[in-house]
Specification:
Layout (H helix, E strand, L loop, with lengths): L3 H29 L1 E6 L6 E2 L3 E5 L20 E8 L5 E7 L8 E10 L3 E5 L4 E3 L4 H10 L9 E8 L2 E9 L2 E2 H12 L2
Antiparallel strand pairs: 1-9, 2-3, 3-8, 4-5, 4-6, 6-7, 9-10, 10-11
């Protein structure tokens, strides 16, 4: 009986420490990370367990990435980041060793081959929103494919291989500001 109380207390502390560390880690990436702009191609699914979210597909991951390394599906790699001429993020290479003095994201190989290049799963592909907001975001973002919206991108903070989605933008406005503007325009 004497051993039970300390054991329960230790388990309780561990249960609090794990989510606290996860929150701390995300806040550190957001506050200290380098911000990259990733052009998006979204769709809007519903997950009954997690709620509404907009799944983001990134243009930085639409073309295969060449590497001299033989990789298999499920392998973890470092996706080295750079910016294109317009200031948007792109993956310049995949490497197995952690790069020094370069921004990178730890990512999982989803498919590909040595001769054709590889595709990776980026760890920040969901933007969660309320039940009312998610469909509005999806409509706003899909307008891009119909050439009604020029520019849709996500700001992502990157720090030591970890990445956290910061904000979603439509036509240079944060998504919430864009949706408010749309409501005002529709009420005129």
């Amino acid at each position: 009986m004497k051993l039970t109380k300390p054991l329960v207390l230790i388990l309780f502390i561990i249960q609090l420490a794990v989510p606290a560390y996860m929150i701390y880690e995300q806040r550190t990436v957001l506050s200290e990370g380098v911000v990259y702009k990733f052009k998006t191609r979204p769709i809007d699914p519903l997950d009954p367990f997690r709620g509404h979210y907009v799944t983001l597909r990134f243009e930085a991951n639409t073309d295969p990435i060449a590497t001299s390394e033989y990789l298999r599906k499920g392998d973890w790699v470092y996706a080295v980041l750079s910016e294109d001429k317009d200031g948007f993020a792109q993956i310049s290479q995949l490497v197995l060793e952690e790069p020094q003095n370069k921004d990178f994201i730890k990512a999982e190989v989803s498919w590909g081959s040595l001769d054709r290049g590889y595709y990776v799963r980026l760890p920040f592909n969901r933007y969660y929103a309320s039940e009312d907001t998610a469909p509005q975001i999806e409509k706003a973002v899909w307008r891009r494919q119909r050439d009604e919206v020029d520019n849709v991108y996500a700001e992502v903070s990157v720090l030591e291989g970890k990445a956290t989605l910061k904000k979603l933008y439509v036509n240079e406005l944060a998504i919430r500001d864009y949706l408010e503007q749309e409501v005002k325009n529709n009420n005129k």
